[in-house]
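Box 4.2: Ligand-aware structure prediction
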Amino acid sequence: MEQINSYINKVFVEQDEVLEGVLAAINAQGMRPISVSPASGKLLTMLVAMTEAERVLEIGALGGYSGICLARGFGEKGHLTSLELEQDYAELASAHLAKAGFSGQVDYLTGPALESLAQLKNDGRTFDFFFIDADKENYENYLAACLELAENGALIVADNVLAGGSVADAGIQRQHTEAMKKFNETAARHPQLESILLPVGDGLLVSRVKK
Ligand SMILES: C[S@@+](CC[C@H](N)C(=O)[O-])C[C@H]1O[C@@H](n2cnc3c(N)ncnc32)[C@H](O)[C@@H]1O
């Protein structure tokens, strides 16, 4: 996977000073280097642009890398709502989105994402694009909550669904691997979803909502 990913990144992803600045800041702050891969980021931009999504919800902001990639896909009317547990991370991500030119087009809700999702539902908010990239044990809960906030035809994308390739190895039974296997199977069989797993980065699940 590593070899394939570095080939894809080398051939298809151009050098990007803005995103490299985000990674450098994450490193300087001693945060974990767990942003999406460059190719996954490019794919997020393309998916938002291809679906012409305007109301995008992200779960897991970290330093703003994926947030910038998502925002690059929408036009002037686009808006990103990003859910992040840590206040410091949300502030860092917000600063990076502003630096990238999206200051008026992003809001951060801090605290446990499940609480923020319940609040968004109470507020009657809906979205046409979702990106799930936070605590893996809650992926199934996030999927259910996103479905409640989704318009018909919305896209739900989730990162790390290959769990380093371990989902395809019957001999590995780590908690993280089992959670991802269960999540993938739920998405694959869900009556309101049409889903496929793309082996880019650590695996992106792409699901289209059919309501
Ligand atoms: C893999 S990182 C996100 C990376 C980011 N999407 C990117 O590619 O730039 C996961 C993020 O989820 C956040 N997180 C973990 N548990 C959470 C929870 N229960 N609610 C909201 N955010 C959570 C972490 O603080 C971390 O910033």
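In the box above, the bound molecule is S-adenosylmethionine. The domain at 2-209 is CATH 3.40.50.150 (Rossmann fold).
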